[in-house]
Design brief:
Elements: H1 3-26, H2 28-34, H3 44-65, H4 72-94, H5 101-125
Amino acid sequence: MSLKTIKAIFLISALYDILLGIIFGLFYQPVYQSFGIELPNHSGYIQLSALYLFIFGIGFYLVYKNPVQNRQIILLGILMKLAFFIVAIGHLIFDTIPSIYIPFAVLDIIFVLLFVPANSALKKMAPAA
């Protein structure tokens, strides 16, 4: 995988997570209402998750800016995206989950499938320590 492709993957991921963080952080009420999702008893549950997503977007932007130097962030991104996928799909299989979350879970597993080879390629590009 080329450095140009890796940078494109992480720029797209950064923009995606930053945008989702903003949307769910600031506009969660209309989003939840439009999908018929009951709001939690406190808005902090949604806002904190949205801020975590925004922060990961910043991390992916750092990878985009300097992929070799910031390669360690990729492992955290893989784990975060796998965690959401596992929770969402687990609830889909064993319980119920609002339909709005399924496309995000699919996109997250696609990002994982892109992040893993990107991380491997960057490992080969990194100078020997």
